[in-house]
């Protein structure tokens, strides 16, 4: 449905690259006024330019979600600019260093917890204080429910996000706010490239029933549905988008 986000203001965190970028572009193409958050200005400028050149509306804000004061200041400016906030795609996250859990130190958890868990919680909480009948979509991960050796610390933060999402759905339901999550599988983003060399990427592709790894655009349709009124009776749910990777079936 074209322009299903007309007159809606949507915040996308981690909007400069990967899934955040793909969803931000799709939202703008369907009429949304999009606020773009990220830690690096240059990628955000490229996304904002692409949206504006296509006739869309975008506001870029350099924001590190690990810093609650930055969240508050940028959110205030965004709402002042667009006049409201209708939805948020809480997409920003950090992979950290992949290593066995027996070798993982307390400090290895610190940045992951501060960004993936606390940063997302603070983003969502502060947004919800400005929303009624709004929508929150949290980007979790397939690793929260399946196993990739070495991802233990990262997966722990994503599993915590799913628990938080379900509690929020119950707490916020009476205000009309819907809270859901999406758990992408192997999606070839710049962040994924940090840990996936070509050999590993090929092995993962071969294990997937659809015989390929995902692209950011493969997540867009599901994210757009969950952010839109078309999923108006869906809340507290985690939707896995992984090409069947976590089915665990025998290879053929």
Automatic annotation (TrEMBL):
InterPro entries: KR_dom (IPR057326), NAD(P)-bd_dom_sf (IPR036291), Sc_DH/Rdtase_CS (IPR020904), SDR_fam (IPR002347). GO terms for molecular function: oxidoreductase activity, acting on the CH-OH group of donors, NAD or NADP as acceptor. Residues 8-185 form the Ketoreductase domain. It comes from the Bacteria. Keywords: Oxidoreductase. Belongs to the short-chain dehydrogenases/reductases (SDR) family. This is Dehydrogenase. It comes from Celeribacter baekdonensis B30.
């Amino acid at each position: 449905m074209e322009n299903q986000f007309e007159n809606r203001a949507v915040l996308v965190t981690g909007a400069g690259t990967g899934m955040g970028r793909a969803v931000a572009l799709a939202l703008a193409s369907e009429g949304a006024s999009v606020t773009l958050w990220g830690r690096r200005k240059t990628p955000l400028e490229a996304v904002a330019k692409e949206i504006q050149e296509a006739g869309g509306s975008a506001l870029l804000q350099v924001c590190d979600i690990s810093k609650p004061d930055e969240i508050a200041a940028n959110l205030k400016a965004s709402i002042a600019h667009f006049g409201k906030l209708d939805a948020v795609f809480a997409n920003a996250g950090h992979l950290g260093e992949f290593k066995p859990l027996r070798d993982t130190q307390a400090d290895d958890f610190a940045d992951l917890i501060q960004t993936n868990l606390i940063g997302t919680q603070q983003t969502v909480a502060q947004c919800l204080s400005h929303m009624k009948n709004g929508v929150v979509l949290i980007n979790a991960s397939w690793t929260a429910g399946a196993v990739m050796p070495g991802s233990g610390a990262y997966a722990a933060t994503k599993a915590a996000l799913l628990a938080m999402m379900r509690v929020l759905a119950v707490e916020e339901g009476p205000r009309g706010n819907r809270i859901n999550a999406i758990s992408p599988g192997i999606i070839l983003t710049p962040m994924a490239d940090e840990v996936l060399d070509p050999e590993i990427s090929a092995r993962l592709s071969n294990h997937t029933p659809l015989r390929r790894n995902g692209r950011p655009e493969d997540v867009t349709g599901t994210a757009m549905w969950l952010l839109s009124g078309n999923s108006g009776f869906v809340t507290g749910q985690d939707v896995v988008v992984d090409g069947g990777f976590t089915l665990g079936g025998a290879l053929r």
